[in-house]
């Protein structure tokens, strides 16, 4: 496939479209990062573990993906990301509220 064919397949995006597409991919990368850190933590302990970093990646990815969804005017993804952000933030609240030994 030539560069011209790829460009046409993408609908000849504008510079703003490419910037927002990049923002969307950054959000997806951050969201993937949460699974990656969870997998590594579980492998190290040889049991299922959800480290604090998982929730930070969730918040970061959720915020970026919510911005992307709002820009795209996608109500389904916007509502899903907004609801998820509440859950991620609430988990971080519980982690930081608990004594240090509880989430070591």
Characterise the protein shown here.
The protein has one domain. It contains 5 helices and no strands. Helix 2 packs antiparallel against helix 3 and helix 3 runs antiparallel to helix 4. The longest helix is centred in the first third of the chain and has 31 residues. With 104 residues, it is an all-alpha fold. The chain is elongated and about 55 Å long.
Question: What's the gist of this structure?
Answer:
The protein has 104 residues and is mostly helical. It has five helices and no strands.
Shape category? elongated
How many beta-strand runs? 0
Overall structural domain count = 1
Helix and strand element order: HHHHH
Low-confidence sequence ranges: none
Query: What gap, in angstroms, lies between the N and C termini?
Result: 51 Å
Estimate the mean pLDDT confidence.
88
- Structural class by sheet pairing and helices: mainly alpha
Largest sheet: none
Helix content: over 70%
Rg value:
18 Å
Count of discrete alpha- or pi-helical segments spanning 4 or more residues: 5
Q: Into which percentage range does the β-strand content fall? A: under 5%
